[in-house]
Amino acid sequence: MLKGHVFSKQIFGNPIFALFINTFLNGKDGVSNNYKNGMQVTYSGSNVTVASGAVCIQGRFLEEDTGSTIPAGADTVYCKLVIEVNLDLQNTESQFNQASYKVVKSASGYPNLTQTNIVKNNAGVYQYELARFRTNASGITDFQDERTFLDFDTIYDEMEAEYGAVLQQLKDELDRIKDQSDVLLKTGGTVSGKIEVGTGGDISGNISANARNG
Length: 214
Known about the structure:
Elements: H1 14-24, E1 30-32, E2 41-44, E3 47-50, E4 53-57, E5 60-64, E6 68-71, E7 77-86, E8 99-106, H2 118-121, E9 125-136, E10 139-145, E11 149-150, H3 152-178, H4 204-213
């Protein structure tokens, strides 16, 4: 069945909107660098705190409105703090269940993330890393901020620059065609003025002689 999105009296479905945003961002994830506190990540003892901000993960926007503190535990392990998008869960009118903070742990090294294609499948789990660190009984050590950023101002500047470059190239091509500086007719028509070869020699006289002898 054919469905309409961005049509009158039709709902713009969230999977299609996520596809649009993810395509626009070329599949990049990241924190907005000019909204609230940019989801700055800090730690104290065995707790990690994420400040207010917004992040786009595979075309889906999430906002941390006030700040959240996540306990990391006291085990001797390697940890990654992630935002986990789980489209296999269902939201309700009063509860948002499809994304949450999660500390992913491993005893042998920093764990791999689960990153299924939630845009294509509209299902599955995708984890975005905010920070990595180690924990032990004394608290958090070796803390590293792993946020990536989406600079929307720079994105638009790059688009405008590329657009301007293409327009200038087209203008230059049209100008060359207009004055016929690089056009030579193969058959038929008339070429006015002198025709010069690469060495600068004038062959207009030979063309006139050939025309009379023809």
